[in-house]
């Protein structure tokens, strides 16, 4: 395959799969919407539907509770809420889907970060009776921080609002203005009733004033084609292959998944953070030698020179590599119940590399109502979004998150028990650049973590 055909080939493959996430406040009807999508698109097996029908009768429901198709935990079914991220896989003749149904409660916002981190589209539900609420803004902010390319505003329970066009228009206008302030590039507003099925898979007979697509129509047609040649090429080394057998006595290959961009045989690359350079001599994909490979293919690279490369190193084109640094300024969403405080000693996991780090400063916490920055909050609690300044023990080749979602993101981990503390996005907070970077001092730590 030549470099000229790479983008076209990937475009054909990318349009066949869409990863999307649902989010919204409590009782906005996320699980019912997902259940309706699965049911009306005929993506539910007969035995699954029978089990849900039985569970619905046992709960005294007059009709099938489609939310039970996704709320699989016992606690979820007992409380009628979503707690965990429920992943569902389904397909229509036009496209395959990976769906993440995320929780609505404030204390589970961290799970929305998990579900939306790889999503190409986010559906944010709003109850037509309540309009845009704080959790709606929180989920919109998370979608903006994660740079989700497409956002759908699903104004649900229109049947309980008399199918009034004015109600829908007011909510869509308010949310659209808020989304624009976050730098969200595109919002598609759709009035629906997940319970009745209006505008989910089939057009509504009671909302003839709406002429746009149904939710499924939009999911099937939203463009997700992306030419990887426009992204910076990044290859985190996952494993070094050294068989040292009679057949391959000197073979040295570097295995991993291309995080972004395109790699070609003959291309000059730099090893980060060491700065060593070499040329790609061979690319093996699925047991065959190829001239070109692209994200997210898993490949093995061999280089023209024998270099000291190990797991955690990152290969990038010599002409387009970032400068490794020990200073990280980022926007984070704190995930753990234990607050994140300045001076905290953590592990920072970036791609396949994990290094020691110290949280030097927390300059601000985001206020979701008006997107203002609360200066010097002292700590970040669970579900807080804020700016942090971090010093790492070793240099990292960390891209700006706006340039690469895969190599611009990282996790902070508790070194004592391995718990995930915080999800971070390097660089500016939102697409509009609302948060400024802060300088970091390279001082040390009196307990031995001196960087």
Give descriptors for this structure.
single chain, 451 residues, alpha+beta, eight-stranded antiparallel beta sheet, six-stranded mixed beta sheet, 19% helix, globular
Q: What low-confidence regions span 5 or more consecutive residues with pLDDT below 50?
A: 1-15, 72-83, 433-447
Instruction: Label the overall shape.
Output: globular
Taking the sheet with the most strands, its summary is:
8 strands, antiparallel
**Beta-strand content estimate:** 25-35%
Integer-rounded radius of gyration: 24 Å
- Helical content (DSSP H or I, runs of 4+): 10-25%
Distance between the termini: 46 Å
Secondary structural class: alpha+beta
Descriptive overview:
This protein has 451 residues and is α+β, with helices and mostly antiparallel strands. The chain has helices spanning 3-14, 30-40, 46-58, 74-79, 109-116, 134-145, 165-182, 215-221, and strands at residues 17-24, 86-91, 96-101, 121-127, 150-156, 187-191, 235-236, 239-241, 253-257, 262-264, 268-272, 277-285, 288-290, 292-294, 298-303, 314-317, 325-334, 345-350, 353-367, 372-375, 385-396, 409-413, 420-426. The protein is built from eight helices and 23 strands. The strands form four sheets. Strands 7, 8, 9, 11, 12, 13, 15 and 16 form an eight-stranded antiparallel β-sheet that branches. Helix 5 packs parallel to helix 6.
